[in-house]
Amino acid sequence: AQSVTQLGSHVSVSEGALVLLRCNYSSSVPPYLFWYVQYPNQGLQLLLKYTSAATLVKGINGFEAEFKKSETSFHLTKPSAHMSDAAEYFCAVSEGNQGGKLIFGQGTELSVKP
Amino acid sequence: NAGVTQTPKFQVLKTGQSMTLQCAQDMNHNSMYWYRQDPGMGLRLIYYSASEGTTDKGEVPNGYNVSRLNKREFSLRLESAAPSQTSVYFCASSDDRGLAEQYFGPGTRLTVT
Question: What is the DSSP string of A54-106?
């Protein structure tokens, strides 16, 4: 069965610092991987997705993630945090061939200090 | 395009009451989903529908029923609400052409007392 583990339920960084949110997955088939962001009292928005075309994926708002098969990881990074990046971030894996069911990680809440 | 819409936005129920959460999408997607979000647990799939006329159980279906009324609409029903069903409920839809990116509604915050 597929699963996703996000390391760290809360991450705090200073404005301008590197953002690193960790995600490890388990899948018996080549996965599709996603990062979603949720701002307070809103639904989820797609940040980026990995679909096997390239291992380094660029998303919106300056975020990117690198797929590392050997480490079963898909960590999310941003070189310089902005106050507006404060939100909850979810990593998710898809079975890909069954109507797109997603398995979500527990979420990581990102705080950005001025 | 409105995307995915959900009604109501907020609801308070007493234990044992019933209600239906409504969801509609205008993106002509085949697949639709209902999730619940609880602190520290991410989103968990309740039910999904891969196409009009079909529904399947997800990870946490107990206490819920769904109806895929047509291609646009997918409703979630709580027949006899329990405090354990206090949660935020999200509906989502996706185009099932391989990439499975899901589009989410704004959510319904449900409290059962």
Answer: -SEEE-GGG-EEEEEGGGTEEEEEESS--GGG-EEEEEEEE-SSSTT-EEE--
State the first-to-last Cα distance of chain B, in angstroms, to the nearest integer.
36
In the numeric block, which tokens belong to residue A68? 């590392």
Of A14-23, A36-45, A56-65, B94-103, minimum mean pLDDT range: B94-103
Kindly state the tokens that stand for B85: 């069903």
Structural contact between residues A20 and A74, judged by C-beta atoms closer than 8 angstroms: no
Encoding tokens for residue B80? Answer: 């006899």
The Cα–Cα gap between B97 and A100 comes to 9
**Which residue, chain included where needed, has tokens 């291609």?**
B71
Helix (H, G, I), strand (E, B) or coil at B85: helix
Backbone angles phi, psi at A62, to 5 degrees: 80, 5
Residue contact B50–A44, C-beta within 8 A: no
A59 — contact with chain B (CB < 8 Å)? no
Q: Quick check: B2 pLDDT over 90?
A: no
Provide mean pLDDT across the span A48-76. Answer: 92
Say if A42 is an interface residue toward chain B (CB within 8 Å): yes
Q: Could you tell me the two tokens for B110? A: 């449900």
- Report pLDDT digits (tens) over A66-91: 999 899 999 999 999 999 999 999 99
Write out pLDDT tens, residues B5-17: 999 999 999 999 9
Q: In b/e form, how buried is each residue of B9-23, taking b as 16+ CB within 10 angstroms?
A: eebebeeeeeeebbb
